[in-house]
Amino acid sequence: GFIAMCAFSNSVFVGLPMNTGLFGDEAVPYVMCFYIVNTTLFWTIGNYLISRSGEGEKRGGILHNLKKIVSPPLVALAVCLPLAALGVKMPQPVVKLSGYMGNIVTPLALFYIGYALYEYGFKSLKPDRCMLAVMGMRFIAAPLIMLVLCKLFGLSGMPSGVLVIESAMPVMTQAVVVAAANDADESFVAAGMSLTTLGCFIFVPLLMLLMDAVGLV
Asked: Exposed site from 154, 172, 205, 206, fewest CB < 10 Å?
């Protein structure tokens, strides 16, 4: 569970409103690209790692993991990309409805954070050495690695900023679900998710200030 917590981030439910708030709607394509890679790797490698650390018998096979990869955001992206490539314009009511639905993402994210804190309690948010290591990986090491990768592939400006912020998002909520399904240390993963969710509201603004100061965004 520890490796999965360090490696995979909450790229949509927290990452999407965070990036659209910082960079605008232009950030959405880059968020979705990150989401595709992040989700696919989580439900293959991440699920395998968490299931190995558990003692349960609910081990999902390849087909089970593939079903988990097919989530609503991924389906929406698969439908919309061909339409956009073909230049198909959606009716205005559909566009407005999509805009309204997009506007509620941030409030829902705040509800989710509140629910997570209520569900697992503030007592679970003790920053011991393992939790500090997770936070160090999520908020320091992961953004630095992503920044190096962006430089290697020639990305700069807003795309680079979006990917760096995405890499600094909290632990995936699905990690808690997978840990519970495999009798792994669910409370440990849940505590990491809650702690990093709160921590991202402190570290992400600092990260943005740092990137702006050195001219990365």
From this structure: 154
